[in-house]
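Sequence, please.
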């Protein structure tokens, strides 16, 4: 998931100075002594009402984690083809577990579908892809992950610095210790792997107990995922993708339009047809879409990604991720029907 950065270009300049001086924090270092810490602490005090003592105390407990820096440099979406990526998620056990999760949370899923307009199978599939239905929510302390990436990962330091700010704020809002929570190597949390800014903007207390618990409460996790999708433009009752074919040479099409460009759909299917990409199924020519090209087991395959496909990419910008979520959702839905419990 991607969220707005805090605009602090002085951070980047600070990075260059810190690297040049060889002052970046080492493993088990005291992050309160990092060259960039003073600016961060000042921001938390001046803009967000924390005390310098409490921020410094928390930073002193955070540890640099080299495996996190190694992992973020090789995301699967960038290193694998579709034929390699799809089998990671579309496997029998994940479908079976999805059916079990649906059955165990039928009431919450039905209420979320009714209130937010997002199909139960999409909610289940997101949680299935993200954490295998809560079985793998991450073992890193969130403060370690975010501090490591905010202070020692220059390529995306502004983003993770922003998330660290949001993390401290959300733990204050929820009255919890920031040293307490665990998540992924990128600092994503709970069943649905929400980044801190996502938690603050979209997570909901769906069971009404006063704490938005996406870590241990499936009802809150389900409502939060559904709300996230609704707020990012999910169109109730509309399709996600449509299979496509090329009617012109690939080179002719790519000369005028880009495949796999994740953006708000603007060109319509009618526009794409003129460019040389046509739907295989019947669908209105005025429907906005992007085109995606995957290297599948049988060669290149083409799809139209509609608005709901784009909404899934608001969770993760990879077209392969969005297609994996969709494929898994359809397999889970079919398995539910076959079991006679849908």
């Amino acid at each position: 998931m991607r969220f707005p950065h805090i605009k602090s270009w002085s951070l980047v300049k600070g990075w260059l100075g810190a690297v040049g001086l060889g002052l970046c924090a080492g493993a088990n270092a005291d992050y309160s002594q990092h060259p960039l810490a003073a600016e961060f602490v000042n921001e938390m005090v001046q803009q967000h009402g924390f005390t310098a003592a409490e921020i410094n105390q928390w930073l002193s407990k955070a540890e640099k984690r080299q495996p996190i820096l190694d992992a973020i440099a090789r995301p699967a979406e960038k290193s694998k083809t579709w034929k390699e990526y799809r089998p990671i998620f579309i496997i029998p056990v994940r479908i079976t577990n999805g059916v079990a999760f649906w059955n165990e949370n039928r009431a919450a899923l039905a209420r979320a579908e009714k209130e937010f307009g997002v199909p139960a199978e999409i909610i289940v599939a997101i949680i299935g892809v993200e954490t295998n239905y809560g079985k793998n929510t991450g073992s890193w302390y969130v403060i370690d992950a975010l501090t490591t990436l905010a202070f020692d990962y220059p390529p995306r330091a502004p983003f993770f610095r922003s998330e660290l700010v949001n993390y401290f704020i959300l733990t204050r809002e929820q009255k919890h210790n920031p040293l307490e929570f665990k998540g992924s190597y990128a600092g994503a949390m709970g069943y649905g792997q929400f980044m801190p800014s996502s938690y603050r903007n979209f997570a909901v207390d769906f069971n009404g107990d006063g704490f938005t618990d996406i870590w241990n409460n499936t009802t809150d996790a389900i409502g939060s995922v559904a709300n996230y999708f609704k707020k990012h433009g999910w169109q109730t009752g509309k399709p996600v993708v449509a299979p496509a074919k090329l009617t012109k040479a690939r080179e002719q099409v790519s000369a005028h339009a880009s495949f796999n460009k994740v953006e708000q759909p603007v060109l319509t299917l009618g526009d794409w047809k003129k460019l040389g990409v046509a739907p295989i199924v019947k669908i209105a020519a005025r429907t906005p879409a992007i085109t995606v090209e995957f290297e599948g087991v049988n060669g290149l395959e083409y799809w139209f990604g509609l608005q709901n496909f784009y909404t899934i990419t608001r969770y993760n910008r990879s077209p392969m991720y969005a297609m994996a979520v969709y494929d898994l959702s359809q397999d889970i839905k079919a398995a539910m029907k076959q079991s006679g419990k849908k």
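The mean pLDDT is 91.
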